[in-house]
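Supplementary Text 2. Reproducibility record for the structural model of the 210-residue chain.

All settings were left at their defaults, and a single model was retained for analysis rather than an ensemble. We include the record here because the model underlies the residue-level annotations in Supplementary Table 4.
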Amino acid sequence: MIYQTEETREKILAGAQQIFVENGFEATQMKDIATAVGISRHSLYRYYRNKTDLGFAVYTRIFSGFESEITAILEAQSGNTAMNARQSLIGGILAFYKLPHRQMDFRFLAEFDGFNSGSRLPSDFLENLPEPDAHRLFATLHEFIQRGVKEGSIRCDISTRELTQTVCYSTQSLAYSLLARGEALYGVSKSERDRMLDNLCQLLERGLSP
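Retained model, structure tokens:
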């Protein structure tokens, strides 16, 4: 029987996330995580089979808190009677990606997604993703777009599902790219980089208009 505690598991996940961000997912080894957490490699392997297994666990841990947080942000935005559903949606997404306490989470997701791409993408990658939480997050955004279509603030010539996919993945991709590459973005000054996500959100809001 393998003895495990939730306290140690949380300690491992928090430590692993930090090391993955600092060293990069590819360069990080299980021994690095064990050292950072203060346990033996043998103990670490009692909890996670390998680095990929641990990476997915961190991924799931992060996503578990996203749905409730972005829902609260969107609801707060929609509480402003001066804003329609389209403005609430885009304003909420922008506010979400600028949350100070989520920056480390976004950095990990950018690193993890960047590593698991192209020829390195595991065949079972999608099966290992936190489907329930990711689905609820998508559903929350979809609900706001449906609300916007119903009230007339969002276009109806493209399906609400496709609009949700476009808004979700375009903002996510840019946010992750800005974190992952930072100053390495070719031909982009710091001031331009700082405005890029805001600019994208402005373009999306206008593009969502009827």
